């Protein structure tokens, strides 16, 4: 009988937790997009709740992820993401009083900062888990899209939740791809 190595057991458990976390993030983002495309386009109240809820959910998800992987002190990029996302949720709630251009500007700043934090987290996790290319790409893309949002917010066209939905859709895609890639990488590692 082979005795499992404690480091291997920890890594396998952590990998399984991270895979599950990525799947949950992907499913929630996809559900947010579906809600945005349906009730978010027909109900201003629902759209407002969705717009505030998206960065609030990101803060909560990053907090749970950091808590399960060494705490916020051990994961400074996620700690930053939690703070930035909480501030963004509050700022979106305030920006709703000024209009969607202000909301899009807040989303842009948040997307850039949260994307940068995600990119750093992905690079850091690559050493332990591998298979983080989709998270790194997602973080980089989020950082760039944030700049596009800020530029669009300064324009005369009034944005809607439909301008933000593709951003969340790409987030869902990247989280699911990351989860699947971790499954594949883990199977290769154990084979």
Task: Supply database-style keywords.
single chain; 191 residues; mainly alpha; 0% strand; elongated
**What is the makeup of the main sheet?**
none
Computed structural class: mainly alpha
Strand-and-helix sequence, N→C?
A: HHHHHHHH
Q: Which of globular, elongated, flat, extended, rod-shaped describes the shape? A: elongated
What is the quaternary state of this protein? single chain
Instruction: Give the low-pLDDT segments.
Output: 1-10
Straight-line distance between termini: 18 Å
What share of the residues lie within helices?
A: over 70%
* pLDDT averaged residue by residue: 91
What fraction of the residues are assigned to beta strands by DSSP? under 5%
Computed over alpha carbons, the radius of gyration is 18 Å
Integer count of domains:
1
Number of β-strand runs: 0
The number of helices is 8
SSE layout and pairing:
Blueprint: H1 6-37, H2 39-42, H3 44-68, H4 71-74, H5 76-95, H6 100-129, H7 133-153, H8 165-190
Helix pairs in contact: 1-3, 1-8, 3-5, 5-6, 6-7, 7-8
